[in-house]
Amino acid sequence: MRALDLAIIAVFLVGMPLLGIKIAGRQRSGADYFVGEGRISWWVACLSVVSAETSTLTVLSVPTVAYLGAFTYLQLAIGYVLGRVVVSFVLLPRYVAGNMTTAYNFLGRRFGAGLQGTASVTFLFTRLLADGVRLFATAIPIKVVLAAYGLDASYLLIVAALGVAMVVYTFFGGVRAVIWVDAIQMLWYVLGGLAVILVLMGKLPDGWFSSAFDAGKFSLLDFASSPLSNPYSFVTAVLGGAVLSMASHGADQLIVQRLMACNDVRASQKALVASGVVVFFQFALFLFIGTMLWSFYRGVDPVGDLGLGTNDELFAHFIVTELPSGLSGFVIAGILAAALSSSLGALASSTVTDVYQKVVRRKLSDAELLKQGRVWTIVWAGALIVFASLFTTTKNPIVETALAITGYTYGALLGAFLLGLWVRKTRQADAIAAFVVTVAVMAFVILGLKFSRSGAFLGVDFAKATKESVALAFPWYTPLGVLVTLVVGGLLSLRHREPARWAEEEHPATPT
Q1: What is the spatial distance between Cα 233 and Cα 469, in angstroms, rounded to a whole number?
Q2: Burial class (CB in 10 A: 0-12, 13-18, 19+), 462
Q3: For 339-372, what is each residue's pLDDT tens digit?
Q4: Alpha carbon of 22 to those of 142, 180, 201, 245, 399: distances in Å?
């Protein structure tokens, strides 16, 4: 009965990389491989950005968030839109008009090669961890499908197979292949989500919507819970989401690479702002699915009552067991497509441009850039597969795990950019010191500070959080990191009497 599903999934996994290679054409230079020579339309880049930042985590984990809670997760999307508007007018013009290959080129021009390398290496390890979560998330539905056939495949084996599919089209097609595959897959899994809603409509009893409404499942704004401990408190979600979006879309090469592939500054701005609107409605779509699943399963415990390995297997379990053959394969293929939202090109471009060229101390030719880009694409693919296996035992919704990982470094990354723009006297040594201090402070805050669920400070404890204690809500990680970077860097800059040379040239009329 499920042979059709497996056939659809197999054709998709083989066909999508080949389609990406076909669309991208032959890669002739490093610029073509890394930024597509500015030939990507804004709407394609918009869909690619949405797919890159949400993808499998959205499809699998956001329904789980709604199943266990309510629609308050959508408050983050409000902040995301606000943050993108700021980035589109403050940072994007410098990247695109400056003909940069990576976002960290800006830090190199403003401060020097030392901070550029520091920021790039930080991005590489942060992205490696975060995308390890993403890749693991995509392995979940495959494991469920194979289990339905009596096959017990390990997560490591599954992520290895997905990694091979990912590296094929990135290696041969460069960023153009990545962006086009992203756009297609985003449309695919959204159509799959709409199909699931139609099926659930026919399975739910009359009055399910009013029952869910009365139970508070559609609650959007949360002004009552503690802003320190609850990530979906209104102030926490909106403010934290805005600053997080500024970091992820202004200081993370994964997103910036896609925006720099647009035709011009205006096109990249349209792509970025529009992506925020699309994300809002996409989140709403999958939160709605999660609420429908809550009504379908009557709110039972996915692990204890349904026998699932983790809460995040719930949606995949429904797809495999409740959807008709053919449609189930279509939806699973859409979820698997999210794994093909490759970060390998971003990792390779940052490695070659920001690190490798600094180590060899010479500017590489186009042929050398292309060669090194492909070599590092393979290296990072192997590392990504290894790191994906580290998250197989997480108990929290995986989307929250991915967002928490970025908390260690996103504040320092965005703070470094803002230091360069706002504090004219800051030198490279000041910025690097502020960067290192921020990462250390955030590690202490994330691992050590504990609060009660009501928001009361409980002290410092490096043991795991318990039912009585929780860590600081993850949306605060990036704003706090930015604040620490600006304060430390700003204080250190007071040692200098004159503005830095780059700042003097860029802002001759700006007061200190």
Answers
A1: 17
A2: exposed
A3: 566 677 778 778 887 788 878 877 777 777 778 8
A4: 26, 10, 39, 32, 32
